[in-house]
Automatic annotation (TrEMBL), chain A:
It holds the Pfam family ThrE_2. It comes from Fictibacillus macauensis ZFHKF-1. This is Threonine/Serine exporter ThrE domain-containing protein. The chain crosses the membrane at residues 21-40, 52-70, 77-95, 115-138. The keyword Transmembrane helix applies. InterPro entries: ThrE_2 (IPR024528), ThrE_Dicarb/AminoAcid_Exp (IPR050539). GO terms for biological process: succinate transport. PANTHER family: SUCCINATE TRANSPORTER SUBUNIT YJJB-RELATED, UPF0442 PROTEIN YJJB-RELATED. Residues 5-132 form the Threonine/Serine exporter ThrE domain. Coiled coil: none annotated.
TrEMBL record, chain B:
It is a multi-pass membrane protein. Belongs to the ThrE exporter (TC 2.A.79) family. GO terms for molecular function: transmembrane transporter activity. It comes from the Bacteria. This is Threonine/serine exporter-like N-terminal domain-containing protein. The chain crosses the membrane at residues 116-139, 145-162, 199-217, 229-251. It is found in: Cell membrane. Residues 12-250 form the Threonine/serine exporter-like N-terminal domain. One of its GO terms (biological process) is succinate transport. Keywords: Cell membrane, Membrane, Transmembrane, Transmembrane helix. GO terms for cellular component: plasma membrane. Pfam families: ThrE.
């Protein structure tokens, strides 16, 4: 658990540097990635959870936090969400797929490839869902305040 | 609202869109910013079509029936979210404080010349830590931590330097992946590392087009079919280049 926390924080913040995010967004991005990865790992560890579902939920939460940070720091959401979803991105799956292809094990490659594709679809789904729900919530909150 | 010449509005909104798209902003954000800038500066309607390789913008002046159309070609794209933030701030300033058009244009030209937020050496150090951490996250052990850091750092430096001198697309990813595979293989052969797969996965992560894939799916879901498909194709080719580089090592050595 502790290992998962510091590795995912460093990896996400490091990706922030690779993507040239503004300096003051590095640590929030790291925190987003850390929360997403810990949630994903806890759910993937519990055996009744599907990996795709775990990814979708984690990415939804990451995107929600990114929206809040974006509102607070007045920056585009992508700055935070991009480093936040990095640990969830199925890079390992993509690699395994390529490896199986190279070894002429096409059945395993198709299986792994479909899962990888579904997982990236799940990340996108979580992002889109949060992108529609969170602004709605924030808007209603502002309206009630002004009334 | 004071009126500006349609050429000026065109120049500002197209340049802003171009800067954002070149720096890796999402399609919808680019379209949104362009429309907002154009209407804030007094264009009656703004029709914009954004693809990863070109922006087409059509503007109509108030009280006219003629449309003015211009295309901006986007030849190279990188991820530089600092620029996206700067252009976003500018667009917000235009909406709230009605910044004069000349000043907006001047500011966009300074953003254009702005150096990248982090120098190359800092990015390489970041890649080193990213690689090591991902190896641990994918259940590698501490034996694989150091080899993965070395392979990731070397791989990313090769990626950056090859990209600077050779303009063939995907070649830099291929070379980087090849050397990552080579270092990982040597490390395992000489007993420094344990699991070849874990080292390679970690070290390859800074190159993997994960965000590209996700953005492609997101664009498709949002109805930007052309950008979604072309980003997806780019992501596939990048992944294929990385896979080929690694495969070359695994198969031949």
């Amino acid at each position: 658990m502790i290992e998962a926390i510091w590795t995912s924080f460093l990896a996400s913040a490091g990706f922030g540097i690779l993507f040239n995010v503004p300096r003051k967004a590095l640590i929030p991005g790291g925190i987003c990635g850390m929360i997403g990865w810990v949630i994903y790992e806890q759910m993937a560890g519990a055996s009744q959870f599907d990996l795709v579902l775990a990814t979708a939920l984690a990415s939804f939460i990451v995107a929600t936090i990114s929206h809040v940070y974006a509102r607070l720091q007045r920056m585009p959401v992508i700055i935070f969400s991009v480093s936040g979803i990095i640990p969830l991105v199925p890079g390992g799956g993509a690699y395994d797929t390529m490896r199986k292809l190279v070894e002429n094990d096409y059945n395993a490659a198709i299986q792994l490839g479909s899962q990888t594709f579904l997982m990236s679809g799940a990340i996108a789904f979580g992002l889109v869902l949060a992108g529609t729900i969170v602004p709605l919530l924030l808007r209603t909150q502002r309206q009630t305040k002004s009334h | 609202m004071n009126t500006h010449s349609i050429e000026g509005i065109m120049e500002v909104s197209l340049l802003a869109g171009k800067l954002m798209l070149q720096s890796g902003a999402e399609t919808y954000r680019v379209e949104d910013t362009i429309t907002r800038l154009a209407t804030n500066y007094g264009a009656e309607t703004a029709q914009v079509f954004v693809t990863p390789t070109a922006i087409i913008l059509s503007l109509r002046e108030r009280g006219e029936l003629r449309d003015y159309t211009k295309i901006a070609r986007i030849s190279n794209r990188a991820t530089d979210l600092h620029v996206v933030t700067l252009v976003n701030d500018l667009s917000r300033k235009v909406a709230q404080e009605s910044l004069p058009l000349v000043d907006a244009l001047k500011e966009l030209h300074t953003i254009e010349k702005e150096p990248v937020a982090f120098p190359a050496w800092m990015q390489i150090i970041a890649a080193v830590f990213v690689s090591g951490c991902f190896t641990l996250m994918f259940k590698g052990n501490y034996h694989d931590f150091i080899p993965s850091m070395v392979a990731g750092g070397v791989g990313y430096s090769i990626f950056v330097s090859v990209k600077r001198y050779i303009s063939v697309r995907f070649f830099s990813e291929l070379m980087a992946a090849f050397f990552i595979g080579l270092i990982a293989k040597l490390a395992v052969d000489y007993g420094v590392g344990n699991q070849l797969d874990k080292i390679i996965i970690g070290a390859v992560m800074p190159l993997v087009p994960g965000v590209l894939i996700t953005n492609a799916v997101r664009d498709l879901m949002a109805g930007h079919l052309v950008s979604g498909l072309s980003l997806g194709a780019e992501a596939m080719l990048t992944a294929f280049a990385i896979g080929t580089g690694i495969a070359f090592v695994i198969v031949t050595l």
